[in-house]
Amino acid sequence: MEILVQVDHLSKSYGNKVALKDVCLTIPTGKIIGLLGKNGSGKSTLIKLINGLLRKDAGTIKVSGYEPGVETKRLISYLPERTYLDRSQSVQQILTFFQDFYPDFNLEKAKRLIQDLGLDLHMKISSMSKGMQEKLQLILVMSRNAKLYILDEPLGGVDPSTRDYILDTILTNFSEDASILISTHLIFDVERILDDVIFVDQGVIRGYEEADRLRTEQGCSIDTYFRRTF
């Protein structure tokens, strides 16, 4: 199994606040992995470091052998926690931008998924609900032919039916030669699609487990185990 991400002894602080402390982990290809922890546990910091959006204090990060930078941006498709779409643009304009910006963007796939949603290509982002915007952003991210998909709190602030759509979209568009890293504190909603789970607490990796084995050994859901343990 190919190693996609290698993180060794990674640390990051904001002033006196330690966000990550001596983090080591390996992400292989062909996995959907949950990065699980409470708000403020260090999940978003780790994701931003892998994406090259923050500077580390110590340690190393390699994505397919590259340090975060120009090369890794071609390999990673990233869904940030906050909406980034230009509200003045239409769905069609956003698609055109992604097609121009990302050589690996599959326009036909994106249009097919958008049609499944019943969205009008001429619809302005400003007229869409938060749930619709969340769905559109996910479609844009999953329509790239990337090696690593990083989704930061993709279920935050959307209704249960939208959550189901998002999870099903992730599953049906998953490629075995890629991996998906999903950061969330909504463990109950996402655990059904996870192969592996990484537990983060106070900037430290507290466990890296195979999801099915953890459920069998603990005799409970991952959500219950997390609440009981952390």
UniProtKB/TrEMBL annotation:
Q: Name one Pfam family in it.
A: ABC_tran
Give one GO term, molecular function aspect. Answer: ATP binding
Q: Which SUPFAM superfamilies match?
A: P-loop containing nucleoside triphosphate hydrolases
Enumerate the spans annotated as ABC transporter domain: 5-227
Q: Which InterPro entries match?
A: AAA+_ATPase, ABC_transporter-like_ATP-bd, P-loop_NTPase
Q: Which UniProt keywords apply?
A: ATP-binding, Nucleotide-binding
Q: What is this protein called?
A: ABC transporter
Gene source species: Dubosiella newyorkensis
What does the record give as the organism's lineage?
A: Bacteria, Bacillati, Bacillota, Erysipelotrichia, Erysipelotrichales
